[in-house]
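Quick board copy: two proteins, each given as sequence then tokens.
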Amino acid sequence: MSKVLVITTSLRVRSNSDRLTEELIRGAKDAGHDVETISLKGKEIRFCIGCLACQKTLKCVLKDDAVEIAEKVKNADVLVFVTPIYYYEMSGQMKTLLDRLNPLYPSDYKFRKVYMLSVAAEDESSTPEKAVNGLQGWVDCFEKAELAGSLFCGGISDTGEADGKKEEQNEAYWFGKSLA
């Protein structure tokens, strides 16, 4: 059983990514994982100021919600980032959080497997490529970790539309069940 941390980055109320995340979590729990979820809704996450003090102290000089999130990321075995795709890229709040996880780079982090679930109105297979590449760039900085998989659910845009997307819900469930 792994300790799985799911971070949802959509700020939309009743977001389609959150609906599919529910199925992913159900699958992960059915597979026996201990799952914790963090939503970035309502969180204060300031931009990294690039001071690099965290590389010596392992702590960020900024005091906001990213500090607590970083501690949870550090202690998880498996990470799952969930993002809507905006302009063929991860959400801005996800990128801001990734930047703020810089104190983990020199730390003794536990996570080894990183996954991504992305959702977009566009439905071309190329739609999530830049978001996946962006997350891969972050993972590449953590030599003990790997981007172990991603699931893209396209053609979903209107609020609550994922409620009627049974095939995508099923894919998200099995994606969660397959987390290692």
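And the next:
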Amino acid sequence: MSDRHLTRVCMVRHGETAWNAERRLQGQTDIPLNLTGREQAERLATALALSGVRFDAIYSSDLDRARTTALPVAEQQALPLNETPELRERHFGLFQGLTYDEAAERHPEDFDRYHRREPDFTPATGESLLTFQSRITRFMDDCAARHPGHTVLVVCHGGVLDIAYRHATGMALETRRDFTIPNAALNWLHYAQGNWSLEKWGDESHLAASLDEL
């Protein structure tokens, strides 16, 4: 297949935050990068520059931790940074701001449903996996339609990458995750003839250390 029909998308989880290090559920709470996260953002930009990859467009969640991770690459490649709420993390409702242990202790029944990945379970004031999945897959498919044959960078969140992986592989929404989602790692997908596929996942070769999404 000709490259002009192939859209390549590099999806990157934001750099580390203090809440990541504390295993605290961030969701859509706007938490900034910590020092490690800022270093990861610079390493990301350097690695992409050394690889020689040129992007045609860069998209980011409008939350600070994703935007700050994307900015060094956007500046280096002299491209505008397209920020969108469509790429925000899943809204975890009453769990936001709690560590995983605190959420399990304070809301045991709800947390058990969350942990079991019940697709239609909605934490109070939050977002169900089904609603979240619809939001992310819609963005991915729209992005591919806007950029046929292009190379695109998308900087987002761990939950977004979980959905993207499943969208590309057909893995069921309720199946327990068996793949890593490290901060600031490179995850390459491609789109052709109406289908998404994985090209390379979880490339951490440019990082000293990185925390998994869970």
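Board note added afterward: Strands lie at 7-13, 57-61, 81-84, 151-156, 186-192, 195-203.
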